[in-house]
Amino acid sequence: MVAAGPINTVHLYGPLHQELIRLLEKLTPAQWLSPTVCRGWAVRDIAAHLLDVDIRPLSFSRDQIELPAPDPPIESYAGLVGFLNRLNADWVNAARRISPRLLIEFLRLTGEQLAAHLATVDMSAPTRVGVAWAGESVSANWFHIARDYTERWHHQQQIRDAVNAPPLTSAFWLSPVLDTFMRALPYHYRELPAEDGNAIVFAITGEAGGDWTLLRVEERWQLFRGAADHANARVTSDQDTAWRRFTKGITADEARQRMKFEGDPRLGDPLPDCLAIMA
């Protein structure tokens, strides 16, 4: 086992952006209106949201404009989720006045600029906003950028599901997504007590999968890549179930039915309740 370290995703932004543009250019008018797993959002709405998540880092990180103050002030995790949901809904509702052709042109512009900007970022420097689902108020840039990559990847996959387009689920695309999602585990398990030395192995099968271990060290759960030799619990999931559950694409009960649990159920059972999105 090795301690879970930084994940490099900057080189994936350009290719993922190109895949998105090629996908959107092929859609028919009816496909733009196809419903998706995101309740209330059609394909056009997810495309508009992807434009917004390009604009935010370009404006706030590259161009250094001030973040608007939340109204009302954010005082809890639930408050943060509510604030983000309102921001997203406001943008998507307004963007319904934008034609598919214009959305594609806007995305072509922002995607290229974002990929170029990220190549200049110091990966070890702190972000202005932390990865909240991992319990961080401040994160290193590499983690924030990896989190953003997972958002772009899984929203594009939701479009692909909706229009029956080929998925981007090879190791090249999906391995860094799963590795990033697993960083939610120490925070998710933070209130589960166990003796030091207890280990929980999470095995994801498939080309993009791998093994991760939560190890109890000094009364805290720490994440490692690889499988512990002696595990108190082991959870096995195929890669499709894993990414869909982390992004709330299937319910926790559906995930439990698809996963295999071995060892101490107290340690393995919490996994299907873990999300790596703001929800």
Please outline the helices and strands.
Elements: E1 2-3, H1 10-25, H2 29-32, H3 43-62, H4 77-95, H5 100-118, H6 141-163, H7 171-181, H8 185-188, E2 199-205, E3 210-217, E4 220-225, E5 233-238, H9 239-246, H10 252-258, E6 260-263, H11 265-268
Parallel strand pairs: 2-5
Antiparallel strand pairs: 1-4, 2-3, 3-4, 5-6
- The CATH architecture of the largest domain comes to Up-down Bundle
Low-confidence stretches: none
The secondary-structure class comes to alpha+beta
Give the CATH H-level superfamily of the largest domain: dinb family like domain
Given the structure, what is the number of helices? Answer: 11
* DSSP strand content: 5-15%
Give the termini distance in whole angstroms: 31 Å
Q: Measured on Cα atoms, how large is the radius of gyration? A: 19 Å
Query: What's the total count of β strands?
Result: 6
Main sheet makeup: 6 strands, mixed
Net shape: globular
Tell me the strand order in the biggest sheet: 1-4-3-2-5-6
The total domain count is 2
CATH class of the largest domain: Mainly Alpha
Average pLDDT, rounded to a whole number, is: 96
CATH fold-type name of the largest domain: Four Helix Bundle (Hemerythrin (Met), subunit A)
Order of helices and strands: EHHHHHHHHEEEEHHEH
Binned, the helix content reads 40-55%
